[in-house]
Amino acid sequence: MMSLKTRFLLGIGCAAGMSAAVAHDLWVEPEAGGYQLLYGHHPRVSHEGMRQIAYAPDIVKSVVCLDAAGGRHPAKTGGGSPVKIEGDCAVLYVLTSSGYWTKTTAGTKNLKKTEAASPLGSWQSFESVKHIARWGSGAANPLATPLEIVPAENPLALKDGDKLTLRVLANGQPVADATVSYDGKPRGQTGADGTLNVRVKHGGLQLIQASTRTPYAGPEADEVVHTTALTFALGSDK
């Protein structure tokens, strides 16, 4: 279990076209024997202060827990809210989906486009967060998940002001033109090889996000929106 009392979060609302007023964050917080998956407002990206929101446990679609060498370990999840994740993970990846969202003349609804009255636009939303606690091949190699950020070097050994080369991958393949943000602020788009350099600007928790939009094949939505985050803490390479 890691000793740093850091929190790992993912801002998910704005990438789906929602206003900042209703944007929420998804993050993982360490606790004895594992982690808990929290949802709501995190003070790192919100000026409204910490506020947790209950969610249905079935939004969690998959959990990957790796040791430093890349070996997979069981990660038991609880059925309550917040979801508890038991396991000592060098790399922890959690994929969630809040389902379909449709913007209508009466507001944004958690419905498919085919279920909503007066739809203006619709998307299927996927959100994920990957935390690196210990460096090794498990962190250096892609997980072949729907969307992930993979560092090209050990991010735990960086110092304030260093640059980090990142790769944004979808199912193990490079993603061009993905928007990458640092602490919630856009820093550029990936090149044809899926890479981008990001400069870390402070110590402690680092939050790097990427998002993609792709057409949805069906009448239920217009787009599929994937948002992912890479989190780690400077100075934790012990």
Automatic annotation (TrEMBL):
**Keywords tagged on the record:** Signal
Q: Which InterPro entries match?
A: DUF4198
Signal peptide interval: 1-23
- Reply yes or no: does the keyword Signal apply: yes
Specify the protein name. DUF4198 domain-containing protein
